[in-house]
Design a protein that fits this description.
The chain is an alpha+beta fold. The chain folds into 2 domains: 60 residues; 237 residues, Outer membrane phospholipase (ompla), Chain C, CATH 2.40.230. It is built from 1 helix and 12 strands, in the order αββββββββββββ.
């Protein structure tokens, strides 16, 4: 009995000592936090001043550039996994990557905006019953480059010329390939929004002989918007469309809407997603879409 009482007293003493030590550590932490608070406040104020200066610098004429991308990978493997049925010994691999970049020249009297985008993805599925090793097959394949030049009529309105090219690169490069060349006007209501209206635009289409693709004259419309929703969360949306003046069946109209969103975690590295929607009756009479989710980076 005496030994039990002694053991209980030892345990209670240890608990009291531990609690005292924890309280002391918390108190010490609170003192350090209180001591650091003015310094943290000062650093935040300096960062705010730097951000304000960067915004002022960005308003001056000059060259501006930037790039971002998303890398995704998914690996799946099974070995005699009963619940998978016919795919009990299957293996699947998905690889994807997205890159977007821009190089802009902004001046008091004119602007020159250049951008490029690339989205690639591959998939390999091995069921375990093949006679030969399966190959990676493309599941995403988009390449787009554009160049917009404008001469300012007012601070927000400019006469402009646009060249835009779109195709695939893994398979059937330039088959089809779309080249838009047009003239019209560009409206810039704010620095991070660009709206293009070109009523004179020719949509060239490059394809193998015997294909059903038809070039035509029409109207080109482009909208591009970039913003930081909250600190560390960036969003860009781009809509490009062509409205043909030529009546045809299937329709010669086409349009693509692409959205990018990125969550910055550490020094430009984070998580990002890209979603693309496209409609073109010359390609397929249904809404097309693709998406990529993975690690992102921003330069």
């Amino acid at each position: 009995m005496k030994n039990i009482v002694t053991f209980i007293m030892i345990m209670l003493s240890a608990s009291i000592i531990s609690a005292q030590s924890l309280d002391e550590l918390k108190a010490e932490k609170a003192k350090l936090e209180e001591k650091a608070a003015p310094m943290i406040k000062e650093v935040d104020a300096i960062k705010a001043e730097i951000d304000a200066l960067n915004k002022k610098i960005a308003a001056f004429p000059g060259w501006y550039k930037g790039a971002s991308g998303i890398i995704g990978a998914n690996f799946l493997g099974r070995n005699r996994w009963f619940a998978a049925g016919d795919l009990s010994d299957s293996k699947a691999t998905n690889l994807s990557g997205t890159f977007t970049g821009f190089l802009n020249r902004l001046d008091e009297n004119y602007f020159w905006r250049n951008s490029a985008g690339l989205n690639l993805g591959w998939q390999k599925l091995k069921t375990g019953t093949e006679a030969t090793e399966p190959k990676f097959e493309p599941v995403a394949d988009v390449f787009n480059v554009s160049s917009l030049f404008g001469y300012n009529i007012t601070k927000k309105l400019a006469a402009s010329a646009l060249g835009e090219y779109r195709t695939t690169v893994i398979k059937n490069f330039n088959d089809p390939g779309y080249l838009d060349l047009g003239l019209g006007f560009t409206y810039t209501p704010m620095k991070n929004m660009v709206l293009v209206f070109h009523p004179i635009n020719y949509n060239f289409i490059f394809a193998k002989a015997g294909s059903n693709f038809t070039p035509s004259l029409g109207c080109k419309i482009v909208g591009d918007y970039t913003t930081e929703i909250i600190k560390g969360v960036n969003w860009r949306s781009n809509l490009t469309g062509f409205l043909s003046y030529k009546k045809s069946s299937p329709s010669l109209h086409n349009g693509t809407w692409t959205n990018w969103i990125g969550f910055n975690v550490w020094k430009g590295i984070g998580v990002g997603a890209e979603l693309g929607l496209r409609y073109s009756e010359q390609e397929i009479n249904k809404l097309q879409n693709y998406y990529t989710i993975g690690l992102s980076y921003k330069l």
